[in-house]
Amino acid sequence: MTARGPGAAPLAGVIFDFDGVLADTEPLHLRAYQDVLAERGMTLGAADYYDRYLGFDDDGVFRTVWSDRGLNLDEETLVELIRVKGERFEALAGQGEALFPGAADCIRRVAAEAPIAIASGALAPEIETVLAAAGLRRHFRAVVASGDTPRSKPAPDPYLRALELLRPHVAASALDPGGCVVAVEDSMWGIESAIAAGLRCVGVAQTYAANRLETAHVVVPTIADVTPEALRAACAADA
After folding, report:
1. Which residues make Cβ contacts (< 8 Å) with residue 48, sequence separation at least 6?
2. DSSP code per residue over 41-107
């Protein structure tokens, strides 16, 4: 299942990133990282987080924080950092609504058009917690999360795995198995990952300015603007 040339393939599936696209969880992730790092005498400012660490999963964030400070991070400590950070995030996420305005409606209308999945660097329990709380988990045919692939974004692995898991659902829905699959992303790293996997991409300018997402085939202001028409425009856009 691949994306074909401009105007040649109908929409067959959609794969969403999670943080920054569907869920406004980055402030919660930042707070969780800050709490964990503070216990070890480290600080992480918001500007540094968004400029330097946003594209990484938990493993990548902690490894890079340690590397940036010229420190060695052993695997046992890394595992513990990820565990504690995950627990802190879930506690914060459980305190309120984490989805962006318009995200729930977007999920419902896109799922009515084609099978949908998630390819994210977030931990699976974090994704499941947010989707279950919003009553939206049933719409997703697959969730690819941190640790589910050998490499994380910007490598294509998460999208390739999500694409593989979508295949039987595309066939079951009687859509063209050779049709266009579109990724919905908010970061340069995510767009790079999606395009490397052979997908068309809609960039959502909720985390970064639209001009930083120019490698996407279509850029929209918010998740509320991700409509079937925008997705089909990405399928029809020049590569």
Report:
1. none
2. T----HHHIIIIITTS-HHHHHHHHHHHTT----HHHHHHHHHHHHHHHHHHHTTS--BPTTHHHHH
Tell me whether residue 1 is in a domain: no
Final residue of a structural domain among 48, 75, 93: 93
Q: Nearest 5 degrees, angle CA 219-CA 103-CA 111?
A: 90
Q: What is the DSSP letter of 58?
A: H
Residues 127 and 150 both lie in one domain: yes
- Reported as a pLDDT band with limits 50, 70 and 90, residue 96 is low
Specify whether 209 is located in the same domain as 128.
yes
How far, in Å, CA of 190 to CA of 203, rounded? 9
- Report which secondary-structure segment, H or E, holds 93: helix 75-93
Coil, strand, or helix at residue 179?
Answer: coil
Give pairs for 42-45: CB < 8 Å, separation 24+.
42/69
Which residue is it, tokens 């399928």?
235
pTM: 0.78
Does some domain include residue 3? no
- Sign of dihedral through CA atoms 225, 188, 215, 179? negative
For residue 139 the two structure tokens come to 């719409």
Residue 113 sits in the same domain as residue 226: yes
The pLDDT tens digits of the residues spanning 60-88 come to 999 999 999 999 999 999 999 999 998 99
